[in-house]
Amino acid sequence: MFTRNLLPQLAEELQHSSAVALLGPRQSGKTTLALEAAKAIPSIYLDLESERDRAKLAQPELYLADHLDKLVILDEVHRTPALFPVLRGLIDQARRNGRRVGNYLLLGSAALDMLQQSGETLAGRIAYLELGPLNLLETGPTQRDTLWLRGGFPESLTAPSDTRSLRWWQNFIRSYLERDIPQFGPRIAADTLRRFWTMLAHHQSGMLNVTQLARNIGVDVKTAQSYVDLLCDLLLVRRLPPWHANIGKRLVKTPKVYVRDSGLLHALLDIETKETLLSHMVLGASWEGFCIENLLQCAPANVQGYFYRTSGGAEIDLLLVWPGGDIWAIEIKRSLTPKVERGFHAACDDLLPVRKLVVYPGQETFPLGHDIIATPLFDLCRELAEQPNPPQ
């Protein structure tokens, strides 16, 4: 059993918000976290993928009105979009009566439907939280290599062997392609989308070239863009945006693309063991994506992530930009003796970051010169998690 770092924030939101949407990929642990948060308060749980539970909501106003004194957890709520106006009415009625009842926790496997539906009907009444797969702070540093290989989805991470973990991922991918994705968008041939998804995995940490992807898969650019959008909305792929600033440089303006979970990345590439990973051409890109996902998960929600690249070769793998404007420049190296290239120094001269860091797979923190610090991934994740506010 893992303790999720999001638990205190979820508990706080449930105390102050009439409705909370907890978004994350299927099987990332949303239900477990919701039930953990509900232990201390009267609650009921409805799985809207269950016909039995959906039948209880045949007349939702009557059913939910009988449970105004409880936290109502609605799992896979995108399956019943007609509920959103009902929830709005119950929340508004409670407000008019001067009571803060009708507390709802909505669980969804995608960002797009939940944001569209709840945004239209529950504006000003709902808080949003995103739960990703397990991160390094939640598993502990001794699990780093297993977490990197298998990914952070609990059933994959805790599988009895690497073979069983890969088998779980194969079933996960098939389920998404054949059952889940058709719920959220136009009908897409499973084989076509799987080939597209695998191409993204081969292109891990590369610049997103939708035109080239469309050409390789034999579809038009608009269709290929819709595939990328869908996988991003399902919280399975990340477009890391480039940093833009008026600094008199020619900046790269195309986002980089990552399969967000390293276990999913490896499953798409049929990588089963660490030995196979270490000899695979995706090794460096996989480590980079793994570090970026962990750092963004552990950083405060008001911190934004970017990369930086100029046409002249200045480059930083990850910029963390704080609300006050401070920038942390982070380079990611898969070496126990990390060295910083000229491009990182040039980029730091452009941006003047307040912190210059190199994340590497070692165990010690040490200076590299020029105010650059080499730090283990776990230590930087912990430092970010301990900063609820922007650093001064």
TrEMBL record:
Membrane-spanning ranges: none
SUPFAM superfamilies xref list: P-loop containing nucleoside triphosphate hydrolases (SSF52540)
Domain of life: Bacteria
InterPro entries named among the record's database cross-references: AAA_14 (IPR041682), DUF4143 (IPR025420), P-loop_NTPase (IPR027417)
Entry protein name: ATPase
Ranges for domain DUF4143: 178-335
Domain AAA: 18-138
